[in-house]
Amino acid sequence: MELNRRTVIAGAAAAGVAATTLGGTAHATGGRKPVKTLFGKLADGTKIYSWSLENGGTRLKVLSYGGIVQSLEIPDRRGRYANVSAGFATIDDYVAKSPYFGALIGRYGNRIGKGKFTLDGKNYQLSVNDGEQSLHGGAKGFDKRVWDIEPFVKGSDVGLHLYYTSVDGEMGYPGTLKTKVTYTLTRHGDWRVDYEATTDKATVVNLTSHVYFNLAGEGSGTIEDHELQIAASRYTPTDAGLIPTGELAKVAGTPFDFRKAKPIGRDIRVSHPQLVTAKGFDHNWVLDKGITARPEHVATLRDPASGRTMKIATNEPGLQFYSGNFLDGTLTGPSGRTYRQGDALCLETQHFPDSPNKPKFPSTVLRPGQTYRTTTIHTFGC
Ligand code: GLA
Fold it and tell me: Which reaction does it catalyse (predicted)?
C-alpha cells in the first residue's frame, strides 16, 4: 500500500469513520492469524471453508473451493470500505454458474486451441469446454477443485498456503502436478500471490488468478469509467475462437493502446475487428518488460470516483485484460445486485494463450526436476 493510503486509514480511524461491511474499523497494522468459518457444503457433503485475513488495511476472504477470493475489501479516499471483487454469497452459486469469479486457474490459464498440443513428439487431447477450445484448464479445472489450506503468520505478513495435486492425465494433461499457491497480505496491505508447481512428467503449465475487479465496489455498475494503464506496446490478436493468431501486433494507433492511462470506456465501442470478435477487450498484452526475475510494475487501475487504485507487478510476460464481456445480467452478487456486461474486469498475469502451439511464444513447458515459480503483487492505494 502506498503512503497516502496509510495516512487516510489512520485518519479515518481517528475520525471514527468505520463504514465497513465487516463491522470493524480500519487497521493500519495487522499480523493476526487468519480465521476459518464454514461457508457451505458441496453436494457430496464436502465442507467448504471461508478463510478471513486482514492486514495493513486490506481484507480478504478465501474459499477452499477453487482458492476463490470471495471478497476483497479496501478503503476509498475517505476510509470507506468496499468489496472490490465480484462473486457470490453461496457455495451453490459458485458450483452451479460461476464464470471463474475470484478463482485460481490451472493447469492452463486461458485457451489452448482445440485442446490439442504436442510435446516431445506425443500428442495430447485436453478437455474441451469453450466451443472447440480448452479454456482455463478444461471442464473441471483448478477453479472447481477443493484446495488444502494452511494459514500462516510470518513476521508482519499473514497468509494462506493452498495446495492441490492434479493427477497424471487429469483433464488430459500429462504428469502429476503438485501445486502450491501462497496468498499473502503484507503489513502495507498488498495482496501477493506466489505460484509454485512441480511435475513428474514433461507437461505445460500456466497458473493465474481470475478475480473480477470493480474498484467502486461489486454491484455498483460499469467499470467503463475506470482508468487503466498497461505497460505493453504489443498484444496478441486472436481468431474468431479467441486463439492468438501468433502475431504480436502494435497497440499504437489502436484501441489497445493503454500505454498512457485512459478510461476503459473511451475506445471500447470502436468498431475494430478485434473488439467486435471479443465483444470488448479480451486479449493478452505482451508486457514490454518481458519475463523478469522479480515482479515488475505492469498495470495500474484507478477508479476516479472513489480514488481507489490497484497496481499490478509480476514476473510474467503477459497480461490478459478481460472487460467482463460475457456478463449479461443473469448473475447476482453478494450485494444483491446483478452483473451486466462490463460491470467488472479481470487482469490475469500469465504466459500467452495457446503457447503450447505457438513455438515463438515464451515456453510454458515444465519438466521433472524444475520448479515453476511466478509471482503477482497487487498494491492498493487511494
Ligand atoms: C477469460 C477469458 C474470457 C472468458 C473469461 C471467463 O478472461 O479470456 O474469454 O472466458 O475468462 O468468462
Answer: alpha-D-glucose = beta-D-glucose
**322 CA to middle of ligand 1, Å?**
7
3-class SS of residue 160: strand
Cβ neighbour number for residue 364 with a 10 Å cutoff: 22
Residues 187 and 157: beta-carbon distance below 8 Å: yes
- The rounded radius of gyration (Å) of the Cα atoms in the chain is 20
Q: Are 375 and 315 in contact (CB under 8 A)?
A: yes
Give the chain's mean pLDDT.
93
Residue type, 370: Q
9 φ/ψ angles, rounded to the nearest 5 degrees: -65, -45
How far, in Å, is the centroid of ligand 1 from the Cα of 263? 21
Residue-level pLDDT at 76: 97
Closest CA to 217 of 23, 73, 50, 4: 73
- The total domain count for the chain is 1
Please check if 110 is assigned to a binding site. yes
Buried b / exposed e across 54-83, counting CB within 10 Å, b at 16+?
bbbbbbbbbbbbbbbbbbbbbbbbebbbbb
Q: Could you give the CA distance from residue 191 to residue 193 in angstroms, rounded to a whole number?
A: 7
358-369 per-position pLDDT tens digit: 999 999 999 999
CA angle 239/211/358 to nearest 5° reads 30
The reply to whether ligand 1 has any atom less than 6 angstroms from the CB of 232 is: no
CATH, residue 359? 2.70.98.10
How much is the pTM? 0.93
Does residue 280 carry a pLDDT above 60? yes
Q: How far is the CA of 110 from the centre of ligand 1 (A)?
A: 7
Q: What DSSP designation does 34 have?
A: P
At residue 3 the predicted structure's pLDDT band, cuts being 50, 70 and 90, is very low
Q: What is the DSSP string of 258-283?
A: -SS-EETTSSTTS--HHHHHHTS-EE
Residue 329 CB coordination number (10 Å): 10
Task: Please state, in angstroms and rounded to a whole number, the distance separating the CA atoms of residues 151 and 183.
Answer: 10
Query: Angle at CA 40, nearest 5°, toward 68 and 26?
Result: 55
Cβ 109 under 6 angstroms from ligand 1: no
Q: Cβ(71)–Cβ(60) under 8 Å?
A: yes
Domain that residue 303 falls in: 5-381
